[in-house]
Amino acid sequence: MTRITELYGIPTASDPHAVDWPTVIQSQQCPFLSRKCLKNRKSAPDQTIGSCTVGYGRPNRHIMICPFRLLERNQVFEDCKSLVTLHQPGNEWHIVTELNVPGGSVDYCLASVRREKVVDFVGIELQTLDTTGTVWPERQRFIHGHGVKVRAMDRKSPKLFGMNWKMTAKTILVQLHHKIETFEHLSKKLVLVVQDHLLNYMKHQFSFSHLEAARLGDPMHFHAYSLEPIGERFRLQLSERLSTDAAGIASCLGMKTEAKLDLEYIHRQIESKISTTTLMSMNIPIADLS
């Protein structure tokens, strides 16, 4: 049984009579990008890897290792539309790649556009698990078993692969910490799209207890997707949404932040003055301040 779950978007458990694997391997097409796969081998730049999802762990879990796998049916963009709050009927939806912002770049931007002018937008980051080692020998053994000629040294290689859970999670949180302040300052939303397994790891290994079920007013959102089997295929399904702000991301990393000190100071002043006499009510004048 191969540990490659999906290769070029096709489940490896598919009926072998229904898939022409030699043609699939030769064409190297990614169905989620509608173009040639972009995951190239460093030692052979013209050769793509094509592994979207692998089986890993005990019990075995289907782990997405290519961020483009998250683009299936553009569902992740559909699920972000509610965060583009200034959108109106008649506006166009646009998906823009590589948006440069202070602190780095954002993978995608979903924008509401009217008469070629941006009305509102949401930034979207895609993150899947980084691997350690190499999946290449496992890939080569699979395609060799389905009629594709491969080098014996590749399919017989003892090299294995693993999941770099800690580095993947910490790296993306640090990146979010740099970027979310910009979005918060602009009163815009930033969404991190991940697989449910990665979010569960982050919740256990980092300080996530302060994150709440998604609130529209928060600038930082987490959208977690499960990979559900539908017949012989797999389908993305939104399984959990959380949200926080810039200070919340800092807290996830165990960092102290002064981003909200001024606001908290004002909140304390207001709260110290709240009483029954300050309660707004119809037909009751505000107390004279003189």
How many separate structural domains?
2
What percentage of the residues does DSSP assign to strands (E)?
25-35%
- Which regions have little confidence, pLDDT < 50, spanning 5+ residues? none
The helix-and-strand class reads alpha+beta
Q: How is the largest sheet built, in terms of strand order? A: 7-8-9-12-14-15-13
Shape: elongated
User: What level of helicity do the residues show?
Assistant: 25-40%
The CATH topology of the largest domain: Trna Endonuclease, Chain: A, domain 1
Instruction: State mean pLDDT (0 to 100 scale).
Output: 91
From the alpha-carbon coordinates, what is the Rg to the nearest angstrom? 24 Å
Report the count of strand segments.
15
Termini separation (Å)? 82 Å
Give a topology summary.
Elements: E1 4-7, E2 10-11, H1 21-27, E3 29-30, E4 35-36, E5 51-56, E6 61-64, H2 75-78, E7 92-101, E8 104-114, E9 117-126, E10 131-133, H3 136-144, H4 152-155, E11 161-163, H5 165-185, E12 189-195, H6 196-205, E13 212-213, E14 220-230, E15 233-244, H7 246-252, H8 261-273
Parallel strand pairs: 9-12, 12-14
Antiparallel strand pairs: 1-2, 1-5, 3-4, 5-6, 7-8, 8-9, 10-11, 13-15, 14-15
Describe the model:
It is a single chain. The protein is of the alpha+beta class and 290 residues long. The chain folds into 2 domains: 1-65 and 130-163, no CATH class; 71-128 and 167-271, Trna Endonuclease, Chain: A, domain 1, CATH 3.40.1350. The chain has helices at 21-27, 75-78, 136-144, 152-155, 165-185, 196-205, 246-252, 261-273; strands at 4-7, 10-11, 29-30, 35-36, 51-56, 61-64, 92-101, 104-114, 117-126, 131-133, 161-163, 189-195, 212-213, 220-230, 233-244. The strands form 4 sheets. The protein has a 7-stranded mixed beta sheet with strand order 7-8-9-12-14-15-13. The protein has a 4-stranded antiparallel beta sheet with strand order 2-1-5-6, covered by helices on one side. A two-stranded antiparallel sheet has the order 3-4. β1 (4-7) and β2 form a beta hairpin. 30% of the residues are buried. The mean pLDDT is 91.
